[in-house]
Amino acid sequence: MTAHTPHTPPFRDPHLPFAKRIDDLLSRLTLDEKIGFLHQFVPAVERLDIPAFRTGQEALHGVAWMGPATVFPQAVGLGATWNTDLVRRVGEAVSKETRAMRARDDRVGLNVWSPTVNLLRHPLWGRNEEGYSEDPRLTSAIATAYTHGLRGEHPTYWRTAPVLKHWLAHNNETGRDVTSSSVRPRVLHEYDLRAFRDTVEAGAVAGVMPAYNLVNGRPNHVSPYLREHLRTWTDEDLLVCSDAGAPSNLVDSEHYFDTHEEATAAALLAGVDSFTDHGTDGSKITARVRGALEQGLLTESDVDTAVRRQLSVRFRLGEFDPRDDPHAGTGEFDTPAHRALAQEAAEQAVVLLKNDGGLLPLAEDARIAVVGLLADECKLDWYSGTLIHRSTPLEGLYERFGAERVEFAEGVDRVRFRTAAGTFLQVPAADDAEDRVRGAEGALDPATLTGRTDLPPLTTDATGTEFALMEWGEGVLTLRAPDGRYLSVAEDGCLRASADQPGGWIVQETFRLEPHENGHLLKHLGTGRHVCVAADGVKVAEANPEIFEVIITERGEDAVRRAAAEADVVVVVAGNDPHINGRETEDRTTLRLPQHQERLLHAARAANPHTVLALVSAYPYAFDSARLPAALWTAHGGQAAGTALARVLAGDVSPAGRLPQTWYADDADLPDLLDYDVIGSRQTYLYFEGTPLFPFGHGLSYASFAYADLKAKAQSASVSVSFTVTNTGAMAADEVAQLYLRAVDPALPRPRRELAALDRVRLEPGERRELSFEVPLSAFGFWDVHQGHWRREPGPYELLAGASSEDVRLRTTVILDGEASAPRPVLSRGLEAADFDEQSSIEIVDRTKAAGDAVTPVEGRAGELVYRDCDFGKGVSEVSVTVAGGGAVDVSLDGGPVLASLTPETPTPGPYDYTTVTAGILAEGVRDVHLRLRGPLRLAHVVFSG
């Protein structure tokens, strides 16, 4: 190491603590230079020999967007492994490839925006593929493992600096930048914060990214929770990076602030340290910061605080100590070990949903029909790197069983499009060329994948081209030419067979057939325009759409029936394309399989009862499992997906993936997409009281396992639990042992059961192993809105061990001490409006723009609130409410008649202009308070006195 000398500034001295070095560097930066640090793309400070820097490098399941890299299973697939050691090794490989790629291309960043720890509360969320689980404990366990892998094990220098996404309660794409998630305090503490907190406290997180949505009426980018919760969980300087465009949304779409200077100042003061806005152009953000400073909305000290946090990350990444950085020479990229790990992860992610009659594993001499739209596909998603290697289910089965034993039928409809003039759409011949539009230096730019313009547009002729038509649900379809290229529309509006796959921020490869007169219009969904035939080629336009006659030359189900009838067993590979009908910016509308794929499944099953459904998808589906002898699910498994699935089907690997979220049987089981009250509306396996298609934690094996000897003992800070698991089957296999807990006789709604611990263990035939867990006493607690803190009820708690949340093999009870329940101390604390026990037709909103919650009735309805066990002591004679707006608050006790109706004399001028209204009321003892809210008002607080 080089010691500090008179010619070496202290910030360059590796002997000094980072904090002192950052102080020194901050003191040398001018205000303008510090302001420049606040944009995502930080310019170089040449006079101090400080290079440019940028926050953000996508690395959800491999290095994304920067060209070829090892592609691991989607995040939800990694969650399905229930294997923290595996996921840590995946994170380690991804961080090593990030370093290796940066050595070749300095646009690859070391501040990685991964993992996503948003809970998979609702299976129709379009970004389901990005999260790990609906359960906060499993999510935090997997996320912690991934961040430890990304960070590396060196005590000082980090290999990469992970940023958790997306803070907070973000689980819908529909109106994602303008909708508010109404999150009651119990849900906030027990559910949404928990996944973030456990991962941050584990010590390998560099920061978080706020989500686009609002929570309780306030945009996440000005959330007081960043200060009140996040920054209290660690002594590290956490870097908060905005999501792309979100700073401008504060004014432009959310209209939360009147000016961008005001919005930028509020975000910076709330804790946002790096503004991701306007691409590489930092001038707008820096101008807003200067404006905020000039208006007195910010001080230089506020800017320093944000810059300090960013510098802390840069120092930890070794940027200022290149000779001491142990990761500087990392060159591990696409190594045999990384390829093997990608396959291992894909194999461990496969979940065997059903296996009646032992149809699986497939017999060695079986004749196999492989059918379906995903059978010969290796799909990528928005956050994938470019494949170096690929394997499809068909290729995997060819390799495993031999091509002579495998018959393939994709099941697409073959169609021709006849114009009104009697000609047909034709793909002209063209020389091969580069397939994608590339950014500088050859890296894929996912925002500009708009198709090629170096190919001739479609034309028409007397015979035309036969296209493969694939319907992906809700009438959305893709069309593929015989050479394998998809029809796409480029910026010039011309239709070409130019895309390897659907993709891009705005997908240009999807269409819809619309009945019109005696034919169909072909609508291009990317532009919203119809296809027309012009003298200079086929294009999309606003006017003169062509009316096509769609001639079906072969139906996909006919090809499937032929292949199925000749086989011993049929494997139907179904699922989704990650860029269509469920992705970032687009939620799904149903759990059902697309009709096209349901027809193929029915055709296969009718032709051959020995039919296996292999679902390859980014999210759960609802399907008729009763008539299927066997079914599996895997997320899109990256480069080794096909090999992994084939090895599981063949029995080379016993499946041991487990569902990381509930698979519901029907859309009717789902709450509204925007209903975030998992307690009140009984969501996720924690509260759901119906019968799921497959429960949380479910997954079968080719082996069998016996559980025994469950023991539990309460200690001073934990409950020690142990039990044995024995492989009673004939082959070596993994078992995922799951431990759940539940309060036996809770005084208020608690989870039916909640995951307390897990362990994925490999056991040889006949092998028996004792598993031991320490469950902290804090895991038995809940957020007590009566007292405003965590509380553990004294009494009995059941511990349940087994193979899923519903497959419980053993149970025992422990008696725990705790804090006894007490009535609400309303005389000393009053009632915070959001601290209700029950509600209907109520939304939680922001009390002020800076902090606090209030409640308001859903527009057009009267809202009802219930506060249980309010202690009025010897009696009160008055009630006062703090309200804004107009309307009325009706007060009653124990569901009886209205005792007081409180209405402002005149509506307050704005939603944050509060007034206090008082009325007489007589109450004593412990009573339940019922409030009925009528009209457009916000209720913040209730006080009883007298």
TrEMBL record:
SMART domains attached to this UniProt entry: CBD_IV, Fn3_like
GO molecular function: hydrolase activity
Transmembrane segments: none
Family matches, as Gene3D superfamilies: 2.60.120.380, Galactose-binding domain-like, Glycoside hydrolase family 3 C-terminal domain, Glycoside hydrolase, family 3, N-terminal domain, Immunoglobulins
Ranges for domain CBM6: 829-945
Family: Belongs to the glycosyl hydrolase 3 family.
Protein's UniProt name: Glycoside hydrolase family 3 C-terminal domain-containing protein
